[in-house]
Design brief:
Order of helices and strands: HHHHEHHEHEHEEHEHEHEHEHEHEE
Number of strands: 12
Helix content: 40-55%
Radius of gyration: 26 Å
Strand order of the largest sheet: 2-1-3-4-5-11
Distance between the termini: 75 Å
Shape: elongated
Structural class: alpha/beta
Strand content: 15-25%
Length: 346
């Protein structure tokens, strides 16, 4: 059987010939360069489409000084990321926005302290144009790492650190965590509940701190026996609920700082034969469909647009990357609204 000759890929020279321009002009157009008149740009792009030409990534990088990739750094171990639907929703939003701008997503996870050196080397190595980081904890070195790498970054969640003198404010995207918590606790109070407990998130994350502050905004004289610590996981919510029932069997409502902890709390209440919401009303935070609508009864919860926040993070970063070329203003931080979603648990 005779060998089949490989199908040749269209070259940049072929694009230039089809468009009737020089190779240099064709290169500037397909690799994102500037300084080419629009009629010539249109001819080159038409030739690219007709020939099915695929631009060389290395050449495009040399012209634009952009890699076309963005790092998404999540300061949590793998087991947490793939068991908590919050992360998949945020990554989905980021991915949609980056894909719409022909930009690749590179996912970097933090299993332990030793991973920060690896991430620092990668971010400093010119592999990505910028970074999106979220689920940061108080003493995470990621902000310093991105500064040292010299790449722009946008954060998911209100930063717990202050900018160094002379530094620009760090752009971030977050929900109105404090306001959302106030909505939840006021709702429970308006139902006539008098002993409202709170299952807190990790104290080294600003979202948990802000939600606890919102709880305290409404209940000015907080009884410490109605407070229990959690870590944003189902198991921690169950442990916290058990602790609360040991200390305060007379509690009549619980505000959990996220839906996963609320689902763990609900499991314990059901196991002990405590009717929800008749005896204990329960409210969560996040409004993740895979959690809030699947519990029995479905959770009343505070909605935040998790996927939308991911898209906003990516949008702010891409806007920052274009700033030097277009002279646009530096991206600003965004706080997204929260709303209460009433279901059967309260």
């Amino acid at each position: 059987m005779p060998e089949q000759s490989p199908v040749s890929r269209p070259t940049l020279e072929a694009v230039a010939a089809r468009a009737g321009v020089s190779r240099a002009t064709a290169s500037r157009v397909v690799n994102g360069g500037e300084g080419v008149r629009k009629p010539l740009v249109d001819k080159v792009l038409q030739a690219v489409e007709e020939l099915g030409y695929v631009p060389n990534h290395a050449a495009r990088t040399l012209v634009t000084r952009r890699t076309g990739a963005v790092a998404v750094v999540i300061a949590e171990p793998e087991i947490r990321i793939f068991s908590d639907p919050f992360f998949s929703q945020q990554i989905r939003g980021i991915s949609k926005e980056l894909t719409a701008h022909d930009t690749q997503l590179v996912l970097l996870l933090v299993e332990g302290p030793g991973d920060f050196d690896r991430i620092a080397r990668y971010l400093s190595g010119g592999h990505v144009d910028g970074a999106l980081a979220f689920s940061l904890h108080t003493h995470d070195p990621l902000p310093a790492i991105t500064r040292q790498a010299g790449i722009p970054a946008v954060y998911g969640g209100r930063p717990s650190w202050t900018a160094a003198p002379g530094d620009q404010a760090v752009p971030y995207v977050d929900a109105d965590n404090r306001g959302g918590a106030r909505l939840a606790v006021r709702y429970l109070r308006d139902l006539g509940r008098e002993r409202i407990a709170h299952i807190c998130g990790p104290p080294d994350q600003t979202s948990a701190v802000d939600r606890f502050d919102g709880y305290r905004d409404v209940l000015l004289d907080v009884d410490p026996t109605l407070i229990a610590d959690g870590s944003f996981t189902v198991e921690s919510g169950a442990r916290a609920m058990a602790e609360l029932l040991e200390r305060r069997p007379d509690l009549d409502a619980v505000f959990a700082a996220n839906d996963l902890m609320a689902s763990g709390a609900l499991r314990v209440l059901r196991e002990r034969g405590i009717a929800v919401p008749e005896r204990v009303a329960l409210v969560g935070f996040d409004d993740m469909d895979s959690v809030a609508e699947e519990t029995d009864p479905p959770l009343t919860t505070v909605n935040q647009d998790i996927e939308g926040q991911g898209r906003l993070m990516a949008r702010l970063l891409l806007r920052g990357l274009d700033r030097d070329r277009t002279g646009a203003e530096a991206p600003q931080s965004v706080i997204t609204p929260t709303t209460l979603v009433r279901r059967a648990s309260a």
